[in-house]
Amino acid sequence: MLTTIERRQKIVLMTEENGKVNVKDLAKTFDISEVSIRHDLNELGKRGLVVRSRGGAIACDKLAKELSVKDKHNENYAVKVLLAKAVASLVDDGDSLIIDSGTTTEEVAKALTNKQGLTVMTNGLNIAHVLADIEDANVFMLGGQLRKKSMSFYSNEVEQALSKYNFKKVILGVDGIDSEAGITTHYEPEAMLNRTMCTRADKVIAVTDSSKFGKRALYNVLPLKSIDVLVTDKNMPAEFVESLTSLGIEVITV
C-alpha cells in the first residue's frame, strides 16, 4: 500500500498528465475513502501543486515539470553556460565543494577546469565524469541507488556519511524557486540529501535560470533565507531579486 506522500505524488502526476482529476475516480484508483482524497487535494492545493476545483482538481501552471537529463541539456543551454561561468568565479583554488546533480551544475563542473587543488563531492554521475578530466582535483562520488532520470545517486546511508565531512561551498541546482515555497525539487530523497549537503557547507550557492521562478515541485528543499548566494539571469523579476537582497542574500545576475 502506498504511503500518503507516495499517493500524493501520484495524484500530482496524474493531474499534470490528464489536466484534471476527480475525487470519485481517485478514491477508486487508490482504494481509499473520498474523504481521504479530498484531504489530499486540499493539502496539495495549499502547496500550490494543484488547483482545487468542484469535485476534484485541475493542473497548476506553476508546477515545475520534471525532465530527463537528456532533455534538460537542451533547455536554456546558452544561459546555463553563462550561469556556470559566474558560479565558477566564486570558487577559489583549493576549495572544497559539494556539487548537486543536474545539468546546470554539470556546466558549472565544466567551468572549473582551470581551478587548481579542488576537492569535490557530488551525487551526479554526469558531473563526476566531467570532474574526472580535471587532473589535480580530488573527486568523491556519493554512492547509493542510481536514479536514471536524473543520473544521480541517493541513499539514507549517504546522508549519514556526509556528517563526517565539512566543505567550503555547496553548489545547488534548482527545479523550482518560489517566494513562499523557497527551493523545491521533484524527488523526496533528493530534497533530503540536498538539505544535508547544505548543513555541511559554509556557504550555500544556488544557481538557476529565471524560467524556474514561480514554479514549485512537490518537495521542499530549503527556505530562501537559507541561501547565501543566488546566481541567475537578468530576466529574474526585479521584485523577487529585491526580496532576496532584503534577506541578506547576494544575487548575481548574468
Automatic annotation (TrEMBL):
GO molecular function: DNA binding
UniProt cross-references to Pfam families, sorted A to Z: DeoRC (PF00455), HTH_DeoR (PF08220)
Keyword Transcription assigned: yes
Superkingdom of this protein's organism: Bacteria
Statement: the UniProt record of this protein carries the keyword Phosphoprotein: no
UniProtKB keywords: DNA-binding, Transcription, Transcription regulation
Domain HTH deoR-type: 4-59
Protein name, as recorded: DeoR/GlpR family DNA-binding transcription regulator
Organism this protein belongs to: Pseudoalteromonas shioyasakiensis
